[in-house]
Amino acid sequence: MSVPAASPSPSAPEGERVLAALAHPLRRRLLDLLTVEGPATVSMLAARTAQAVGNVSHHLRVLGAAGLIEEAPELARDRRERWWRRLAGGLSWSTADAGDDPVAVAVATASETINLERQLELLRDWFRVRDSRSDEWRDAAFSTDDWLRLSPEELAAFAAELNELIRHWARRQPAGDDSGRGPVFVFARGFPARP
């Protein structure tokens, strides 16, 4: 499991706290919004998610306690306004990281399920709107899959290479004008299966 860089190890309480924070669909969406759109106030996020301000505020505090986001007081115009921003770092985990602890396994499984639902939700959203997007975006969007014959060690090496490629593109600072760029969601999974 890789949680934010400051977190020590998958078995540490901080790792479980991160996974518990992610085991809620609204918190996952709030994290996505802060990642893609940048810092925002509670009321901005409430409007964007069609949720009550108090509900969003609660979920932001949970994400903050897990070390995934932090307050950005320098952006506030007055003492009542609370801004939040995403802390740097990617997230990945496996239920195998939970070891034999049944609570940790349950938390990791719930987080993984919520994550998969979020990935599928974003894909379904794309299917709904793709005909309204430009030819360039429709041509650039992709789906790929294949069957590989790998050992567990090779699958781990493949995952590390793929994660590094995604991190490279996520960290890059495009030079010049951002016209034509927009948020793009990329996900991949690899696991033993039978046709």
Report on this model:
The chain is globular, with a radius of gyration of 18 Å. It is mainly alpha-helical. Helices cover 50% and strands 5% of the residues. The model is unreliable at 1-13 (pLDDT under 50). The protein has a domain at 13-138: Winged helix-like DNA-binding domain superfamily/Winged helix DNA-binding domain (Arc Repressor Mutant, subunit A, Orthogonal Bundle), CATH 1.10.10.10. It has helices at 13-22, 25-37, 42-49, 53-65, 102-129, 135-140, 152-171; strands spanning 40-41, 69-71, 83-86. A three-stranded antiparallel beta sheet has the order 1-3-2. Helix 2 crosses helix 4. The chain contains seven helices and three strands, in the order H-H-E-H-H-E-E-H-H-H.
Proportion of residues in helical segments: 40-55%
Give the overall shape. globular
Q: What's the total count of β strands? A: 3
Task: Return the CATH architecture of the domain at 13-138.
Answer: Orthogonal Bundle
User: What is the assigned CATH homologous superfamily of the domain at 13-138?
Assistant: Winged helix-like DNA-binding domain superfamily/Winged helix DNA-binding domain
Provide the structure class: mainly alpha
What name does CATH use for the topology of the domain at 13-138? Arc Repressor Mutant, subunit A
Question: Helix count?
Answer: 7
CATH class of the domain at 13-138: Mainly Alpha
Q: State the low-pLDDT regions, or none.
A: 1-13
SS strand fraction = under 5%
Radius of gyration: 18 Å
* Strand numbers in spatial order across the main sheet: 1-3-2
What is the H/E string? HHEHHEEHHH
Output mean pLDDT: 86
Please summarize the sheet with the most strands.
3 strands, antiparallel
Distance between the termini: 28 Å
